[in-house]
Fold this protein.
Amino acid sequence: MQNIEMYKLTRLNDGLIKQSEDVMWIQWDENGRFDSKHNEPAIGRSLFMSPFNPIFYTWQTTQIISFKSTESGVEFVTKNSNYVLEHIRETTNINNDGTEQI
């Protein structure tokens, strides 16, 4: 048995769904450049979905203007859209070595 943790982002405006293994929240400086990364949302931060490298990432939002924590994640509003980010934890029948448990 293997536990899988994923993040599911739903854009409420049109139902777009993105998933990733990890997320981070990006703080911008007064010139709109990267300042710092964080584990928690805050006003002015943007969501960044893994993988985290300069060439490819799953999704990035514009800056948060309001948010509230929920039991399963966070609901937030950006300059462009409304989102729900859920932290999903599932157990699979796949062993750590990749074989299926019978």
Remarks:
- Residues 2-90 form one domain.
